[in-house]
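Need a sequence for this fold. Nothing fancy.
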């Protein structure tokens, strides 16, 4: 092995590392893990000489490459834009560690969210609150107005107050901060959802279909609270359920275990 071979391996390894670091925390990460599973199946088929599976992979690889370009088109465009930025070399070293940092939603802020929903439910103030998890929602955050405020019940209630500039749209919460308001979310195209659901609830289901976030909604007509996650919607939840679900998913505290919610309650709304 020559020196140029070592340099070549180092460059390729560095490139793969940067791609993985860039893809992580985006919607493309889920697709990327699916591709890894397909390659694992292909490797197993090769070892055990499963000819039919090998034939299928061999004849679909060209179509698969084109499909990947189509599926990853937004991420590829973003990467090319970053290549044209002057500070690209600096981002290779640091890559915005602040954005990549995982923050836990503390129990005290969960209480603020729950109490805000309780207050809005009493007066039938419509609300759409998106609580981010591992998949970052930067592209949806850009559709709204930046807020960058600590999560409090007063701020949340004030944002969704009727006839205020920020009441229309969704609020996105990352870690312990409200990062943006009046954000536009994709509507679910699930035809099995109840026809009673309005735009707010369909947006809640829609964003939960394309990310791992949890969405809390308050109905403007009935004041009832709902929770959406993974394309599923639970309607008419009470404060105990809401607090328990958020503690179960976000809070890293011993008290969270006593709020475990039956998985059977998470189901599609027909």
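Here you go.
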């Amino acid at each position: 092995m020559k020196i140029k071979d070592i340099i070549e391996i180092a460059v390729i390894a560095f490139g793969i590392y940067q791609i993985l670091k860039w893809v992580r925390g985006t919607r493309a990460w889920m697709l990327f893990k699916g591709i890894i599973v397909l390659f694992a199946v292909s490797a197993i088929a090769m070892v055990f000489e499963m000819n039919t599976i090998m034939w299928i992979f061999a004849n679909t690889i060209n179509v698969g490459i084109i499909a990947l370009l189509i599926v990853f088109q937004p991420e590829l465009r973003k990467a090319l834009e970053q290549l044209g930025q002057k500070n690209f070399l600096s981002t290779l070293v640091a890559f915005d560690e602040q954005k990549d940092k995982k923050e836990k939603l503390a129990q005290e802020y969960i209480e603020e969210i729950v109490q805000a929903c309780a207050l809005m439910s009493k007066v039938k103030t419509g609300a759409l609150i998106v609580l981010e998890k591992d998949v970052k929602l930067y592209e949806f955050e850009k559709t709204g107005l930046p807020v960058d405020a600590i999560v409090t019940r007063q701020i949340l209630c004030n944002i969704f107050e009727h006839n205020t500039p920020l009441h229309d749209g969704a609020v996105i919460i990352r870690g312990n901060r409200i990062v943006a308001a009046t954000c536009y979310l994709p509507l679910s195209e699930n035809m099995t959802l109840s026809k009673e659901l309005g735009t707010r609830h369909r947006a809640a289901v829609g964003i939960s279909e394309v990310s791992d976030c949890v969405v809390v909604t308050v109905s403007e007509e009935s004041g009832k609270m709902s929770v959406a996650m993974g394309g599923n919607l639970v309607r008419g939840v009470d404060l105990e359920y809401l607090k328990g679900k958020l503690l179960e998913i976000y809070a890293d505290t011993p008290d969270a275990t006593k709020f475990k919610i039956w998985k059977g309650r998470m189901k599609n709304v027909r």
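For context: The two ends are 63 Å apart (CA to CA).
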